Amino acid sequence: MSPPPPPIVNTVNLVKIYQNGGVPVPAVRGVDLQVEAGQFVAVMGPSGSGKSTLVHMIGGLDARTSGEIWLDGRRADTLSESAWALLRRQKIGFVFQFFNLVANMTVADNVELPALLAGASPREARERREYLLGELGLADRADAAPAQLAGGEQQRVALARALANRPSLLLADEPTGNLDSRNTRDVLRLLSEVHRDGQTIIMVTHDARVASLADRVVSLLDGEIVDDGAVGPARRRPRATAGDVVELRG
Amino acid sequence: MRQSLLALLAKEPAHGYELKQALEQIFGSAYPSPNIGQIYVTLSRLEKDGLVRVVDVEQSNRPNKKVYYLTAAGREALDVWVDEPTEGPRVRDEFFMKLVLAPMTGIADRMALISRQRRHYLALMRDLNELAERTDQGNRVALLLIEGAMMHLQADLDWLERCQEDLS
Hints:
heterodimer; A: 250 residues; alpha/beta; Rossmann fold; 4-stranded antiparallel beta sheet; 8 helices; B: 168 residues; mainly alpha; Arc Repressor Mutant, subunit A; 7 helices; ABC_transporter-like_ATP-bd (chain A); ABC_transporter-like_CS (chain A); ATP hydrolysis activity (chain A); ATP-binding (chain A)
């Protein structure tokens, strides 16, 4: 039998300490986290608990203080900045709290660019873009400039861009922070779909609707993992109606 | 159910079965619809309290139909109900009692309680997501009710996080 594939993400005693005017401020304090291919992990916790720092380090956007990061079985924390950039382009999709869209490119070009950079043909990139924008209710915004979009629209474009090259790993930091409930529903549907197709996802979120889609919830407090486990199985109440749920909540 | 029947009768007089149908049509799956027996029991109590009046309407070849009317007292009771503010949701729930009492007696660790409760809330949220998917998208009342339940659950989770920060 061949050995099992390595986890997509493996952190070993990962630590981040910021310096604040000479005072060390620990943000992440010894995190061991393994994420298997295809898993959807929600990272929750109070603000300041180290969630964003953790995800930024896994994506190579923030340098670790100590510890190890392995991506797809390869040591990543020792890579140079340019090697990290290459790895990100090939393997990682990132949705930030702030959208970082390219201002002088259309929405369509913003979304297609990562796929083209990763070697997709123009046609593949266009079809993927059409699919993603369609799922997110943005098909008619393809030719707009990012500045013409509302915050919630920009956030959805950022998600489409992150998924454009079918990355091995999707990292997201509060990807529904600016969305109203209808747009959140579109995002939830797309995330469920790509997850069902095998997309690995690590997502920082306060939004319980999003977190409840995850296979696993990791809770951070003061830079440490205080809980890590599966979301309980949904109770089988196949004939339940909205009225029953409200009774349930008492 | 008393108030919803009074409200329907304020619109027009009706018999029991019509009231049942109207409730089903308005609320869909948002509120489990009462059976016809429950409706007649409630109507006869309302009648005893003087809030509705019943009139027998003769029908050929069938037993008389009982048609219910709202009385002036019924109208007043309905106005009082509509005008008074409705209680907000409870915060002093059973989980909070566990959280405060358990560590004193050494029964359980607070962080373990919070973590378990968080997973439970998320499982409930998953139920609501599935329910929203299954619900007829034209049924605005049911969807709003589900959305309301989601928002309450989100608030419960946020509060759990506050407990975790302050009690750790």
